[in-house]
Amino acid sequence: MERNLKPLKGIHHVSALTADAKRNFQFYTETLGMRLVKKSINQDDTSVYHLFYADERGNPGTDLTFFEIPNAGRNQRGNNSISGTSLRVPDDESLNYWKKRFEEENVQHEEISSQSGRATLAFEDFEGQRMILVSDENNEGAEGGKPWKKSPVPEENAVYGLGPVHLTVPNADPTEKVLTEILGFRETRKYPSSVQGQKDIRVFETGEGGTGAEVHLEERSDLPPERLGRGGVHHVAFRVEDEEEIRKWAQLMKELRIPNSGFVERYYFRSLYFREPNGILFELATDGPGFEGDEDFEHLGERLSLPPYFEDQREEIEAKLKPLKTSN
Protein backbone atom coordinates (compact mmCIF):
# COMPACT_ATOMS: atom_id res chain seq x y z
CA MET A 1 0.00 0.00 0.00
CA GLU A 2 1.16 3.55 -0.73
CA ARG A 3 2.20 5.35 2.43
CA ASN A 4 5.08 7.58 1.37
CA LEU A 5 7.48 5.51 3.46
CA LYS A 6 10.83 4.12 2.35
CA PRO A 7 11.23 0.34 2.70
CA LEU A 8 12.89 -0.86 5.89
CA LYS A 9 16.55 -1.58 5.11
CA GLY A 10 17.01 -4.78 7.12
CA ILE A 11 17.85 -5.86 10.66
CA HIS A 12 19.22 -2.96 12.75
CA HIS A 13 20.04 -4.70 16.03
CA VAL A 14 18.94 -7.50 18.35
CA SER A 15 18.81 -6.95 22.12
CA ALA A 16 19.04 -9.86 24.57
CA LEU A 17 19.37 -10.45 28.32
CA THR A 18 22.36 -11.54 30.37
CA ALA A 19 22.82 -12.02 34.09
CA ASP A 20 26.60 -11.62 34.00
CA ALA A 21 28.10 -8.65 32.15
CA LYS A 22 31.69 -9.74 32.81
CA ARG A 23 31.31 -13.22 31.32
CA ASN A 24 29.16 -11.79 28.55
CA PHE A 25 31.91 -9.32 27.64
CA GLN A 26 34.52 -12.09 27.64
CA PHE A 27 32.44 -14.42 25.45
CA TYR A 28 31.41 -11.92 22.80
CA THR A 29 34.76 -10.17 22.49
CA GLU A 30 37.26 -12.97 23.16
CA THR A 31 35.41 -16.03 21.82
CA LEU A 32 33.30 -14.45 19.07
CA GLY A 33 35.77 -11.63 18.36
CA MET A 34 33.15 -8.89 18.14
CA ARG A 35 34.01 -5.37 19.25
CA LEU A 36 32.35 -3.75 22.26
CA VAL A 37 31.46 -0.43 20.64
CA LYS A 38 29.49 1.00 23.56
CA LYS A 39 29.30 0.37 27.29
CA SER A 40 26.20 2.22 28.37
CA ILE A 41 23.09 1.86 30.53
CA ASN A 42 19.57 0.65 30.00
CA GLN A 43 17.90 4.02 29.49
CA ASP A 44 14.70 2.65 31.05
CA ASP A 45 16.56 1.30 34.11
CA THR A 46 19.85 3.08 34.73
CA SER A 47 20.97 0.59 37.38
CA VAL A 48 21.96 -1.98 34.73
CA TYR A 49 24.41 -2.08 31.83
CA HIS A 50 23.52 -2.02 28.16
CA LEU A 51 26.40 -3.50 26.14
CA PHE A 52 26.68 -3.15 22.36
CA TYR A 53 28.80 -5.63 20.34
CA ALA A 54 29.25 -5.07 16.62
CA ASP A 55 31.68 -4.69 13.74
CA GLU A 56 34.53 -2.18 13.88
CA ARG A 57 32.36 0.88 14.55
CA GLY A 58 28.82 -0.37 15.13
CA ASN A 59 27.56 0.07 11.60
CA PRO A 60 23.78 -0.39 11.32
CA GLY A 61 22.88 -4.04 10.97
CA THR A 62 25.82 -5.32 13.02
CA ASP A 63 24.77 -4.68 16.63
CA LEU A 64 24.04 -7.45 19.11
CA THR A 65 23.21 -5.81 22.44
CA PHE A 66 22.64 -7.06 25.98
CA PHE A 67 20.84 -5.71 29.01
CA GLU A 68 22.43 -7.01 32.21
CA ILE A 69 19.84 -8.17 34.75
CA PRO A 70 21.89 -9.85 37.51
CA ASN A 71 18.98 -11.71 39.13
CA ALA A 72 17.29 -12.85 35.92
CA GLY A 73 16.14 -16.46 35.89
CA ARG A 74 17.02 -18.75 33.01
CA ASN A 75 15.04 -18.21 29.82
CA GLN A 76 12.26 -20.79 29.42
CA ARG A 77 12.06 -21.41 25.69
CA GLY A 78 8.73 -21.39 23.92
CA ASN A 79 6.31 -19.58 21.66
CA ASN A 80 5.79 -15.83 21.21
CA SER A 81 9.54 -15.40 21.05
CA ILE A 82 12.60 -14.34 19.12
CA SER A 83 13.98 -17.86 19.05
CA GLY A 84 17.21 -17.48 17.12
CA THR A 85 19.73 -14.75 16.25
CA SER A 86 22.05 -15.15 13.26
CA LEU A 87 25.53 -13.72 12.81
CA ARG A 88 27.05 -13.34 9.35
CA VAL A 89 30.47 -14.73 8.43
CA PRO A 90 32.15 -14.38 5.01
CA ASP A 91 31.88 -17.85 3.49
CA ASP A 92 31.36 -21.58 3.97
CA GLU A 93 35.02 -22.17 4.83
CA SER A 94 34.65 -19.79 7.79
CA LEU A 95 32.24 -22.24 9.40
CA ASN A 96 34.98 -24.89 9.54
CA TYR A 97 37.16 -22.38 11.37
CA TRP A 98 34.35 -21.68 13.84
CA LYS A 99 33.52 -25.34 14.44
CA LYS A 100 37.14 -25.98 15.39
CA ARG A 101 37.23 -22.82 17.56
CA PHE A 102 34.05 -23.86 19.39
CA GLU A 103 35.49 -27.32 20.05
CA GLU A 104 38.68 -25.81 21.46
CA GLU A 105 36.78 -23.39 23.70
CA ASN A 106 34.05 -25.84 24.79
CA VAL A 107 31.23 -23.87 23.21
CA GLN A 108 28.08 -25.95 22.78
CA HIS A 109 27.35 -26.27 19.06
CA GLU A 110 25.68 -28.41 16.43
CA GLU A 111 27.10 -29.68 13.15
CA ILE A 112 27.47 -27.50 10.06
CA SER A 113 24.26 -27.85 8.05
CA SER A 114 22.19 -26.12 5.38
CA GLN A 115 19.27 -23.84 6.19
CA SER A 116 17.20 -22.33 3.41
CA GLY A 117 20.07 -22.68 0.95
CA ARG A 118 22.84 -21.35 3.20
CA ALA A 119 25.53 -23.11 5.22
CA THR A 120 24.95 -22.56 8.95
CA LEU A 121 26.40 -23.50 12.33
CA ALA A 122 24.11 -23.30 15.35
CA PHE A 123 25.63 -22.74 18.81
CA GLU A 124 24.83 -21.40 22.27
CA ASP A 125 26.59 -18.95 24.55
CA PHE A 126 27.26 -19.65 28.24
CA GLU A 127 23.66 -18.77 29.19
CA GLY A 128 21.96 -20.79 26.48
CA GLN A 129 21.48 -17.89 24.06
CA ARG A 130 20.55 -19.52 20.73
CA MET A 131 22.81 -18.29 17.94
CA ILE A 132 23.41 -19.31 14.33
CA LEU A 133 26.47 -18.50 12.24
CA VAL A 134 25.36 -17.98 8.63
CA SER A 135 27.65 -18.10 5.61
CA ASP A 136 27.43 -15.14 3.23
CA GLU A 137 29.10 -17.08 0.42
CA ASN A 138 26.14 -16.79 -1.95
CA ASN A 139 24.55 -13.70 -0.43
CA GLU A 140 23.05 -11.00 -2.59
CA GLY A 141 21.43 -8.11 -0.78
CA ALA A 142 22.06 -5.87 2.22
CA GLU A 143 25.78 -5.40 2.83
CA GLY A 144 27.47 -6.46 6.05
CA GLY A 145 29.80 -4.34 8.15
CA LYS A 146 33.59 -4.29 8.46
CA PRO A 147 35.43 -6.61 10.88
CA TRP A 148 37.52 -4.99 13.59
CA LYS A 149 41.20 -5.36 12.75
CA LYS A 150 42.17 -5.87 16.43
CA SER A 151 39.80 -8.80 16.87
CA PRO A 152 41.27 -12.12 18.05
CA VAL A 153 39.43 -13.74 15.11
CA PRO A 154 41.11 -13.45 11.67
CA GLU A 155 39.38 -10.97 9.37
CA GLU A 156 38.66 -13.65 6.76
CA ASN A 157 36.52 -15.55 9.31
CA ALA A 158 35.13 -12.69 11.37
CA VAL A 159 31.54 -12.00 12.38
CA TYR A 160 30.61 -8.83 10.54
CA GLY A 161 26.87 -8.43 10.84
CA LEU A 162 23.50 -9.76 11.85
CA GLY A 163 21.76 -12.38 9.76
CA PRO A 164 18.16 -13.61 9.74
CA VAL A 165 16.13 -13.31 12.92
CA HIS A 166 13.92 -16.28 13.82
CA LEU A 167 10.46 -15.79 15.32
CA THR A 168 8.42 -18.64 16.83
CA VAL A 169 4.67 -18.12 17.30
CA PRO A 170 1.56 -20.29 17.85
CA ASN A 171 -0.31 -18.67 14.95
CA ALA A 172 1.76 -17.15 12.14
CA ASP A 173 -1.03 -15.32 10.31
CA PRO A 174 -1.27 -12.18 12.51
CA THR A 175 2.52 -11.78 12.57
CA GLU A 176 2.66 -12.29 8.80
CA LYS A 177 0.10 -9.52 8.30
CA VAL A 178 2.16 -7.07 10.37
CA LEU A 179 5.33 -7.98 8.50
CA THR A 180 3.79 -7.65 5.04
CA GLU A 181 0.88 -5.20 5.31
CA ILE A 182 2.42 -2.74 7.79
CA LEU A 183 6.21 -3.13 7.70
CA GLY A 184 6.43 -3.89 4.00
CA PHE A 185 8.24 -7.24 4.11
CA ARG A 186 7.63 -9.71 1.28
CA GLU A 187 7.43 -13.49 1.59
CA THR A 188 10.06 -15.10 -0.63
CA ARG A 189 10.27 -18.82 0.17
CA LYS A 190 9.71 -21.63 2.67
CA TYR A 191 11.79 -24.48 4.07
CA PRO A 192 10.92 -27.51 6.23
CA SER A 193 10.81 -27.29 10.01
CA SER A 194 13.27 -29.51 11.87
CA VAL A 195 10.36 -30.65 14.08
CA GLN A 196 8.23 -33.43 12.65
CA GLY A 197 4.59 -32.52 12.11
CA GLN A 198 5.12 -28.75 12.11
CA LYS A 199 4.52 -26.35 9.24
CA ASP A 200 7.24 -25.07 6.93
CA ILE A 201 9.22 -22.05 8.12
CA ARG A 202 8.36 -18.96 6.07
CA VAL A 203 11.01 -16.44 4.99
CA PHE A 204 10.26 -12.72 4.68
CA GLU A 205 12.66 -10.06 3.47
CA THR A 206 12.76 -6.29 3.19
CA GLY A 207 14.81 -3.67 1.35
CA GLU A 208 17.58 -5.20 -0.74
CA GLY A 209 16.89 -8.58 0.87
CA GLY A 210 19.59 -11.12 1.56
CA THR A 211 21.12 -12.39 4.77
CA GLY A 212 20.90 -9.09 6.66
CA ALA A 213 17.29 -8.34 5.82
CA GLU A 214 15.32 -11.50 6.62
CA VAL A 215 12.82 -12.71 9.20
CA HIS A 216 12.20 -16.46 9.43
CA LEU A 217 8.74 -17.15 10.85
CA GLU A 218 8.02 -20.51 12.45
CA GLU A 219 4.59 -21.64 13.61
CA ARG A 220 4.68 -24.16 16.47
CA SER A 221 1.58 -25.80 17.93
CA ASP A 222 3.54 -27.84 20.49
CA LEU A 223 5.11 -25.14 22.69
CA PRO A 224 4.07 -23.13 25.76
CA PRO A 225 4.72 -19.37 25.77
CA GLU A 226 8.31 -18.33 26.41
CA ARG A 227 9.25 -17.06 29.88
CA LEU A 228 11.89 -14.45 29.13
CA GLY A 229 15.09 -14.55 31.16
CA ARG A 230 18.87 -14.65 30.80
CA GLY A 231 19.75 -16.23 27.48
CA GLY A 232 16.56 -14.90 25.90
CA VAL A 233 15.98 -12.11 23.38
CA HIS A 234 14.17 -8.93 24.41
CA HIS A 235 13.48 -7.35 21.01
CA VAL A 236 14.52 -7.01 17.38
CA ALA A 237 14.98 -3.66 15.63
CA PHE A 238 14.61 -2.92 11.93
CA ARG A 239 16.54 -0.25 10.02
CA VAL A 240 14.97 3.10 9.14
CA GLU A 241 16.86 5.70 7.12
CA ASP A 242 16.63 8.75 9.39
CA GLU A 243 14.64 10.78 11.91
CA GLU A 244 12.23 12.10 9.27
CA GLU A 245 11.29 8.52 8.41
CA ILE A 246 10.88 7.40 12.02
CA ARG A 247 8.47 10.28 12.60
CA LYS A 248 6.46 9.17 9.56
CA TRP A 249 6.28 5.70 11.06
CA ALA A 250 5.07 7.15 14.35
CA GLN A 251 2.31 8.99 12.49
CA LEU A 252 1.34 5.80 10.63
CA MET A 253 1.11 3.83 13.88
CA LYS A 254 -1.15 6.55 15.28
CA GLU A 255 -3.39 6.47 12.22
CA LEU A 256 -3.63 2.67 12.39
CA ARG A 257 -4.30 2.86 16.14
CA ILE A 258 -1.46 0.46 16.89
CA PRO A 259 -0.25 0.94 20.49
CA ASN A 260 3.36 2.13 20.38
CA SER A 261 5.99 4.14 22.20
CA GLY A 262 5.92 7.10 19.84
CA PHE A 263 9.24 8.75 18.94
CA VAL A 264 12.02 7.83 21.41
CA GLU A 265 15.41 9.57 21.58
CA ARG A 266 18.15 6.99 22.21
CA TYR A 267 21.02 9.36 21.34
CA TYR A 268 22.91 6.74 19.30
CA PHE A 269 19.78 6.31 17.17
CA ARG A 270 16.09 7.31 17.21
CA SER A 271 13.45 4.67 17.81
CA LEU A 272 9.85 3.59 17.94
CA TYR A 273 8.60 0.42 19.70
CA PHE A 274 5.47 -1.71 19.34
CA ARG A 275 4.36 -5.31 19.88
CA GLU A 276 3.05 -7.45 17.06
CA PRO A 277 -0.09 -9.56 17.80
CA ASN A 278 1.84 -12.53 19.23
CA GLY A 279 3.49 -10.22 21.76
CA ILE A 280 6.99 -9.98 20.25
CA LEU A 281 8.56 -6.54 20.71
CA PHE A 282 9.58 -4.82 17.48
CA GLU A 283 11.62 -1.63 17.25
CA LEU A 284 12.22 0.67 14.32
CA ALA A 285 15.59 2.42 14.63
CA THR A 286 17.44 4.99 12.54
CA ASP A 287 20.80 4.26 10.93
CA GLY A 288 22.40 7.22 12.71
CA PRO A 289 23.86 9.18 14.40
CA GLY A 290 25.97 6.18 15.51
CA PHE A 291 28.41 5.53 18.34
CA GLU A 292 31.17 8.08 17.76
CA GLY A 293 29.43 11.14 19.13
CA ASP A 294 30.86 10.64 22.63
CA GLU A 295 33.93 8.43 21.97
CA ASP A 296 36.41 8.42 19.13
CA PHE A 297 36.82 5.36 16.92
CA GLU A 298 39.98 4.08 18.60
CA HIS A 299 38.41 4.06 22.08
CA LEU A 300 34.87 2.88 21.50
CA GLY A 301 33.44 0.92 24.42
CA GLU A 302 36.23 1.69 26.87
CA ARG A 303 34.40 4.00 29.29
CA LEU A 304 30.84 4.20 30.58
CA SER A 305 29.01 6.26 27.98
CA LEU A 306 25.94 8.17 29.06
CA PRO A 307 23.65 10.09 26.71
CA PRO A 308 23.85 13.84 27.52
CA TYR A 309 20.47 13.81 29.27
CA PHE A 310 21.89 11.35 31.86
CA GLU A 311 25.30 13.01 32.30
CA ASP A 312 24.25 15.01 35.38
CA GLN A 313 23.43 11.68 37.08
CA ARG A 314 26.78 10.04 36.28
CA GLU A 315 28.04 9.79 39.87
CA GLU A 316 24.79 8.25 41.08
CA ILE A 317 24.58 5.85 38.12
CA GLU A 318 28.21 4.67 38.40
CA ALA A 319 27.73 4.01 42.11
CA LYS A 320 24.99 1.46 41.33
CA LEU A 321 26.88 -0.39 38.60
CA LYS A 322 29.35 -3.19 39.27
CA PRO A 323 32.69 -2.15 37.69
CA LEU A 324 33.29 -3.73 34.29
CA LYS A 325 36.81 -3.39 32.89
CA THR A 326 36.58 -3.05 29.11
CA SER A 327 39.91 -1.36 28.30
CA ASN A 328 43.59 -2.25 28.70
> Could you please say which CATH topology applies here?
2,3-Dihydroxybiphenyl 1,2-Dioxygenase, domain 1
* Number of distinct beta strands: 16
How far apart the termini lie comes to 52 Å
CATH homologous superfamily heading:
2,3-Dihydroxybiphenyl 1,2-Dioxygenase, domain 1
Number of domains: 1
What's the CATH class, please?
Alpha Beta
Order of helices and strands: EHEEEEHEEEEHEEEEHEEEH
Question: Which term fits the overall shape?
Answer: globular
Helix content: 10-25%
Biggest β-sheet: count, sense, barrel?
8 strands, mixed
Q: Biggest sheet, strands in spatial order? A: 2-3-4-1-13-16-15-14
Query: Which structural class fits the helix and strand makeup?
Result: alpha+beta
Strand content range: 25-35%
pLDDT below 50 for ≥5 consecutive residues: which ranges?
Answer: none
Helix tally equals 5
What Rg is obtained from the alpha carbons, in whole angstroms?
19 Å
Query: Can you name the CATH architecture?
Result: Roll
Mean pLDDT: 96
